[in-house]
Amino acid sequence: MIRHTGALAAGLPPDDEILLDAPDERLAPALVAAGRGEYRAAAEVLAHTRERAEWENRDRYVLRLAAFAASRAEWFDAWQRAHPHDPDLLLVKAELAVGRAFASPARAELLREVGPLIAAAAGADPRDPVPWRVALDHARGSNAPHTAFESAWAQAVRRSPHHYGCHVAALQYLSAAWYGSHAECFDFAERAAQDALPGSLLQALPVRAAFAYLTAQAPAGVPRTRLDAAADLAIELSRRYDAADPWPAEVRNLLACVLIELERWPDALEQLRLLGPYATSFPWDRLADDPLERFLELRDEVRIEVAATLPLRGGPGGAGAH
Predict the structure, then answer these.
(1) In a 10 Å sphere around its CB, with 0-12 CB exposed, 13-18 middle and 19+ buried, how is residue 150 labelled?
(2) Spatial separation of the C-alpha atoms in residues 111 and 312, rounded to whole Å
(3) N or C end of the chain: smaller count of CB under 10 Å?
(4) Residues 133 and 59: beta-carbon distance below 8 Å
(5) How far is the C-alpha of 136 from the C-alpha of 172, rounded, in Å?
(6) How far apart are CA 133 and CA 117, in angstroms?
(7) Hey, how many other C-beta atoms are within 10 angstroms of the C-beta on 127?
(8) CB distance 171 to 161 below 8 Å
(9) Which residues are paired to 20 by β-bridges?
(10) How far, in Å, are 19, 110, 187, 213, 214 from residue 177 at the CA level?
(11) Using CA atoms, how far apart are residues 274 and 194, in angstroms rounded to an integer?
(12) Which helix (H) or strand (E) holds 43?
């Protein structure tokens, strides 16, 4: 095992080269400018996604910018003063308010006050599905009934039937941890994955359902075959993308985590290699307070487990056959 563990590090970046939640080449300059208190770069990036209907990028950027505004608000406050009715500002403002409410013990009370902000963001550009992803998160946090959830879901899919962020938000509402069950969560995820185009991140929804099940306090009722099928579908999706591609990084991190939970060590090692340097907070932040440290610990554990399966005179090149 000791002999093979070092060799199995081939293709894995060193620990000090791993990047946690690295922004892409468009978002990175906007975050740097925001760090200086300047909002224009962020406004331009979001306007670009809205004008070109890049809804998946728009959703990712809104989440990152709202998270940044929660800790560094100078640039966001300046944006509000200069352009209070900017559709992109209104969307970040709604996401920021929902995020703050979820982080507060008074979540339900605060979320009741956020409804008008979401409505303003949705009305600012009727084509945009991202405000409806925020509305789905709002429905989950505010204990909204299924009728309210279904109404927001209908608005979301009307604008973008295959929007990944809206599907993830719906999946969370339907999870056993909130207002559904493991069976309901899997059924929703598998239907969406079946209807998705080849290469769509929606094909990773079943592995999200598997993660929710595997990390539940007392998981029971989902057969191992269904969990493995979810992982296999996500493996097939992952192989459609180049190694070290930042776009599917979160999906690959999630898949690696599920494969570890299922003790499919060689498959997990393959995903860790495909990740390159791109670690993401989710799902590791669900397992530990320091997601990067947990990622690195489990990466080492995977190498040890794979090495333990290799014969003394064999080589790590045969790991994939086990």
Answers:
(1) middle
(2) 59
(3) C
(4) yes
(5) 9
(6) 13
(7) 9
(8) no
(9) 279
(10) 30, 21, 16, 9, 12
(11) 24
(12) helix 40-51
Total residues belonging to the chain: 322
CA 219 vs CA 44, 104, 106, 182, 211: distances in Å: 45, 28, 29, 9, 11
Q: CA quadruple 264, 267, 269, 271: dihedral positive or negative?
A: negative
| Predicted confidence band of residue 184 (pLDDT cuts 50, 70, 90) | very high
Residue 25 DSSP code: T
Hey, which bits of the chain come out as E strands? 19-20, 278-279
- d(CA 155, CA 306) in angstroms, rounded, equals 46
pLDDT band at 320 (very low <50, low <70, confident <90, very high): very low
Q: Are 26 and 64 in contact (CB under 8 A)?
A: no
How many whole angstroms separate alpha carbon 149 and alpha carbon 180?
12
Q: Which residue has the tokens 């996604």?
A: 49
CA torsion sign for 298, 299, 304, 310 is positive
Q: How far apart are CA 231 and CA 263, in angstroms?
A: 12
d(CA 322, CA 318): 7
End-to-end CA distance of the chain: 15
What are the distances in angstroms from CA 185 to CA 53, 141, 201, 222, 284? Answer: 29, 17, 17, 11, 21
Phi, psi of 197 (to 5 degrees): -75, 155
Q: Token digits for 200? A: 């769509």
DSSP per-residue string spanning 15-36: GGG-EES---TTHHHHHHHHHT
**Residue 252 tokens, joined:** 């690959």
Q: What is the pTM of this model?
A: 0.93
Q: Higher-confidence residue: 214 or 320? A: 214
Residue percentage of the chain with pLDDT more than 70: 93
d(CA 55, CA 48): 10
How far is Cα 48 from Cα 46, in angstroms, rounded to an integer? 5
Cis, bond preceding 219 (omega within 30 deg of 0): no
